[in-house]
Design brief:
about 30% helix; 3-stranded antiparallel beta sheet; 8-stranded antiparallel beta sheet
Length: about 300
């Protein structure tokens, strides 16, 4: 009788313990899987970058791979601003290697992923106060024109950790964040990975493919690039837009407003139609059409031109 009771009690204990053991094994499996993923990410960065130095932002020390899968899950938006003011690609006769995001001086700028700070420098002809961070997933991110850097070279940072404050240092005409994403020292369009309007990444993973990159980059700019005619509200910059914020409707509203509200520019000495078009985010052809002038027209200081 005693043996039977003991055996029965032991079986009950085993039955109760079984779900706990299965849960523990599941947790162990998840933990092991995460360790493997982290090691794979570290190996990606190790394969992409032959060395570690702070000699330059676009340090092309290795060839860009034909294809690369990048884990975007450990992300934080570098700023809550939803306003893209300048796209990636050709601009003013040269290439613009990143996105410009409207921020105010003093706004907190955060690391997009966990990683190690490679560069903390000042570039008066370009980036101003800037930071470059290398991440285990193979990316490097660049943060330019900040008023102040909050990290040091060689420092390990976590995703979302403050790394600087917004500003307008270097070659800049107003406070904003210049944000770049690089693979192996080669810039790729951040709009392929980040959706600033919706404050999210484009997916858990992004697969870079050299054969389709150009088309995908153009489509990403169309979907997630500069909004409308560049208009924005302080709420959109501060990340306080309404929960039902709809980028498509916002674009349509701004386009409609720009077509109904007449806006004018007072010509300054030395200004050209091309310079005014760039400043007012329009085209020379539109300026000529609205003002009944030719592209070869001579402008006078003080002359008033309609641009919308």
């Amino acid at each position: 009788m005693t043996l039977a009771a003991t055996a029965s009690h032991a079986q009950d204990l085993l039955a109760r313990q079984a779900p706990i053991d299965r849960k523990a094994r599941a947790l162990d499996t998840l933990y092991l899987q995460r360790i493997i993923e982290e090691e794979m990410e570290e190996s990606i960065a190790a394969e992409l970058y032959a060395d570690w130095n702070n000699s330059g932002v676009h340090n092309r020390s290795t060839l860009l791979p034909d294809q690369l899968r990048i884990d975007l899950r450990d992300f934080t938006m570098p700023t809550p601003s939803r306003v893209v003011t300048s796209n990636y690609g050709p601009r003013w006769g040269r290439r613009h290697e990143g996105l410009d995001i409207k921020v105010y001086t003093g706004d907190t700028i955060r690391s997009a992923f966990s990683g190690k700070v490679r560069i903390v420098k000042y570039d008066r002809r370009g980036y101003g106060n800037y930071v470059v961070i290398r991440h285990p997933n193979g990316l490097e991110t660049v943060y330019g024109h900040m008023s102040r850097q909050l990290v040091k070279e060689g420092q390990e940072v976590a995703s979302g950790e403050p790394i600087g404050l917004g500003g307008s240092t270097g070659r800049s005409t107003g406070s904003h964040l210049h944000f770049e994403t690089l693979i192996g020292g080669v810039p790729i369009n951040p709009a392929l990975l980040f959706d600033f309007r919706m404050q999210d990444v484009t997916g858990d993973f992004y697969t870079y493919n050299a054969a389709t990159y150009s088309e995908e980059s153009s489509e990403a700019t169309r979907l997630r690039g500069k909004m409308g005619n560049g208009g924005y509200t302080p709420e959109m910059v501060r990340g306080e837009a309404a929960p039902d914020f709809n980028p498509a409707k916002e674009d349509a509203r701004r386009a409609s407003a720009s077509n109904t509200v007449k806006q004018y520019h007072k010509v300054k000495k030395g200004e050209t139609l091309s310079a005014i078009a760039r400043k007012r985010h329009t085209t020379v052809s539109k300026l000529c059409r609205l003002n009944g002038i030719r592209k070869t027209a001579t402008l006078r200081p003080g002359q008033i031109l309609r641009y919308s």
